[in-house]
């Protein structure tokens, strides 16, 4: 009984440590400590796979990490990104970036 309880406690501690310190799209997707947020970015035209994109939050502050995601319109260059950490759940193409974003 004590060994089982210790194993459960150690598993929970390991999961919490992973959620707190590991940042990638797989962990961020299930991380209950992260909130879904909107960010904006300028992406390269002529491609549908955007890799290491610098994104900005609504106030114009640059995110501390870069995002990678697939798109569907190679002719557009501005996107509204809905994401949870590095996990991108949706993108929407927009005509221009908000005023606060360079």
Automatic annotation (TrEMBL):
Top-level taxonomic group: Bacteria
PANTHER family: HYPOTHETICAL CYTOSOLIC PROTEIN, YXEA FAMILY PROTEIN
Protein name in UniProt: YxeA family protein
């Amino acid at each position: 009984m004590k060994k089982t309880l210790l194993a459960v406690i150690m598993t929970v501690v390991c999961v919490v440590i992973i959620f707190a310190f590991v940042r990638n799209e797989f962990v961020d997707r299930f991380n209950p400590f992260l909130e879904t947020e909107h960010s904006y970015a300028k992406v390269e035209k002529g491609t549908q796979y955007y890799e290491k994109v610098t994104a900005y939050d609504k106030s114009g502050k640059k995110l501390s990490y870069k995002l990678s995601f697939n798109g569907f319109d190679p002719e557009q260059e501005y996107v509204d990104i809905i994401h949870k950490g590095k996990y991108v759940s949706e993108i929407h193409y927009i005509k221009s970036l908000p005023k606060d974003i360079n």
